[in-house]
Amino acid sequence: MRARRLRNLARLQTEAALAARVSFDDPGLRAAYPSLERTPIRLIACPVVKDINQGGLLRVADAFRLEGVDLAPTSREGADLRGGVSAGRWQPHRWIAPLDAVRESRAAGRQVVALTFDADAMPYDRFDWRFPLAIVVGEEVYGMHSEVRALCDASVAIPMYGMVESLNVATGAAIVVATAFRRFLETRPDFAPARNASRRLLGLPDADFPL
After folding, report:
1. Are 97 and 25 in contact (CB under 8 A)?
2. I need a labelling partner for 12 at 20 to 30 A (CA). Which of 72, 129, 147, 189 fits?
């Protein structure tokens, strides 16, 4: 019964996402979107315990137009993108082992930062973010594998003040990515979010505030 309910929910969400793609007043943003500059941040995910976080991470990345998302391959029944069905179409992503993704980012000259609690972690909002950047997020229950952490340049953490010791993976990623994105905008005030691109296609002026 539970499996059937989950399948029906996934079907309904997919249908809603497909319907949302059809717009009669779309000024051409869908055609222009692939050519827009992307934020030089990659999001690298270790294997997740709750597969729905795969879609959640894609949705976070799409919100800030990140360069890409590297999702760890899973031995279970494939991807669960219910947390971000629509984002899966627009957000570049691939399936790659975290160690390989981190090594690739290091070779490309990225600052590689682990989002994890360890003795060396700095508060995320006090960290000196540099670009291009790769942010590595760990597993919900087991954290980040020591081999992956060893290849990162630094680690950051989100200070917690409640009784629960950690955040959902996608939620934690959203908080940290938003902060890093704000720092990027400080270095690139000319970076145009998709919202402004859409307004220009409509013949409207840019929004008054940078985001």
Report:
1. no
2. 72
* Structural domain span for residue 184: 38-201
Is 24 inside a domain boundary? Answer: no
**Structure-derived torsion over alpha carbons of residues 157, 184, 211, 65, reported in degrees to the nearest 10:** -80
Q: What is the pLDDT of residues 53-101, one digit of tens each?
A: 888 999 999 999 999 999 998 765 555 555 555 677 789 999 999 999 9
- Count the domains in the chain: 1
At 113, the amino acid letter reads: V
pLDDT digits 0-9 by tens, 193-210: 766 666 666 566 766 554
> Does residue 78 come out as left (phi exceeding 0), alpha (psi in the -120 to 50 range) or beta?
left
pTM of the model: 0.80
Residue 26 belongs to some domain of the structure: no
Residue 78 lies in a domain: yes
Tell me the pairing of strands 111-115 and 122-123.
Answer: unpaired
Report how far Cα 75 is from the mean position of its chain's Cα atoms: 22
